[in-house]
Design goal:
400 residues; six-stranded mixed β-sheet; five-stranded mixed β-sheet; 3 helices; 10% helix
């Protein structure tokens, strides 16, 4: 009986280990690596509910703190994404990032896209759980992306782009189909090649189809930036992208029957939008500014305007700059002798107590920070000379 007891205990211990292992396998983060919210209107009203964001920090918590880098959208603690203020999808989509934090305080980020789907019933772009499998007919496709298939398995959600069939809801440019853009974040750490989408023809069910891409970034400079697996149609980017260098790429995808010489499908335009990341700090147009202000100037008198620019996407908070005065030297007679408009950068007199005979020059250290003053920062110095005013009457010297 003792042996049986120990055997049972051993089984229970192994089961306990399995449960612990399963629990420990939880990885904090978003449920998807890319969030897509489809809408049927280009004009989104304030308060419009777009969908719900799935997130876990591997605890029992159901509510989390979320933020976005686009102030037009807001996420409640239950993950519901809504329109904070009116949005117009001029280009048919809006790309931004959503952030949350795990139980250790580490920030986690996922790219998100709000996509106008005017013809959602016949839309050529669909989103599926991507199952990586390989048939015997695909074995020679190894020469293209052997290492990439391992990465594919780690990327469970990818768009599958079908060559569209003729319908009134699809646009054509010249002889090419035009589909909604795909998105990829700049400065992505990879690993590379990074899977972006799968290009697919319905004819691959009855024919053996070979896929290829042509145009800038494919077979034209920068050659090889994007590649496609000939049999599977997996579309990859092969290295990091820089939005400030180029914010959009457009090339064509082709589907040809094996042994054929002409396109089985009409060419399809593939547009890749590069999503901005906050990788540029604001830069002042000069590192030092020189200004003059008369002594005894009243509060509100304008002294000078400082200007900084940010190379990030101007339509996001990544380039939304706010200014502030970091320090003033000397601090007499008041540590806040000057004030700055946080939006325009205009510096004005704040205290009407300037006296050249007491302080002839002030040095201000000014900061410009993106993310509405909470992000990356640049600095400049402002030297303000207090000029003389006729504020002293002549004094006679006493005669001996």
């Amino acid at each position: 009986m003792g042996t049986a007891w120990f055997a049972v205990c051993g089984v229970l211990f192994v089961a306990f280990q399995v449960v612990v292992a399963e629990e420990s396998s939880c990885v904090p983060g978003f449920e998807s690596e890319l969030l897509l919210f489809k809408v049927t209107r280009k004009h989104l009203r304030q308060g419009t509910r777009l969908g719900k964001v799935g997130f876990t920090d591997c605890t029992d918590r159901k509510r989390f703190l979320f933020s976005t880098d686009d102030s037009r959208f807001v996420i409640q603690t239950d993950g519901v994404l809504t329109v904070k203020r009116r949005v117009v999808l001029h280009e048919g989509h809006r790309d931004f990032f959503i952030h949350s934090w795990d139980s250790q305080g580490q920030r986690l980020t996922v790219p998100a896209t709000v996509l106008y789907d005017g013809q959602h019933d016949n839309h050529p772009v669909s989103w599926h759980r991507h199952e990586v499998h390989k048939s015997s007919s695909q074995l020679h496709d190894q020469t293209q992306m052997d290492t990439a298939t391992k990465q594919d398995a780690a990327n469970p959600l990818v768009p599958i782009v079908d060559f569209p069939k003729s319908s009134g809801g699809l646009r054509r440019r010249k002889r090419a189909w035009v589909i909604p853009p795909l998105s990829v974040s700049e400065n992505s750490r990879g690993p590379y090649p990074l899977l972006l989408a799968q290009i697919r023809s319905d004819l691959d069910k009855v024919k053996r189809i070979h896929y290829s891409i042509t145009g800038p970034g494919a077979d034209q400079p920068p050659v090889g930036l994007f590649t496609i697996a000939r049999i599977s149609g997996h579309l990859y980017v092969t290295q990091e992208l820089d939005r400030e260098k180029q914010d959009k790429y457009m090339f064509q995808a082709h589907a040809v029957e094996e042994g054929g010489s002409s396109n089985t499908e009409e060419p399809m335009d593939i547009i890749i939008h590069v999503i901005d990341q906050n990788d540029n700090k604001p830069v002042f147009n000069t590192s030092t500014y020189m200004a003059e202000v008369p002594e005894a100037s009243q509060k509100g008198v304008e002294v000078i305007q400082v200007v900084a620019t940010d190379a990030d996407d101007p339509n996001t908070d990544n380039a939304d700059i706010l200014y502030r005065i970091v320090s003033q030297e000397p601090e007499q007679p008041n540590p806040s002798m000057f004030t700055i408009n946080p939006v325009t950068g205009v510096i004005r007199v704040n205290v009407g107590a300037l006296d050249r005979e007491t302080v002839s020059q002030y040095t201000l250290r000014v900061q410009a920070a993106d993310l509405k003053g909470e992000g990356l920062a640049g600095f400049a110095k402002v030297f303000i000379k207090v000029t003389d005013s006729n504020d002293h009457a002549p004094v006679f010297k006493a005669q001996s």
